Sequence to fold (130 residues):
Amino acid sequence: MSTHLAAAQDFTYEPKNPSFGGGNTFNYSWLLSSAQAQNTIEDPNAVKPTPGGFNQDPLKQFEQSLNQQILSQLSSKLIGDQFGTGGLKEGAYKVGSFQIQVTPNSGGGFSVQITDTSTGNQTTIVVPGF
Fold:
């Protein structure tokens, strides 16, 4: 009769993908780039880049930038006219199809609840006090 020596160790499972809970977050970019490299299916709705790397005509981009700056200044003026130079004050406001409710918080900040009356969708923004 002979005896044999056996050795064993505990097995532990560690997920590699961070999406599966407990996976190493440093694996995320490697897993994503690996999956993208293997993907041979093209998105039929994807915007194809034009030669030179531009997805859009530079003149069109300039026009959009100019429009956004004008709209930004216009919205700043409208907000100043509606709320005054002191900023938001407690109360209810109606702007177009939006109902805006401003209420102070106990910590010195305030909450802004915006309701689109045409759809019923609501968004609440909480601004902490400083």
DSSP finds two helices and four strands in the chain. The beta strands are 91-95, 98-104, 110-116, 122-127.
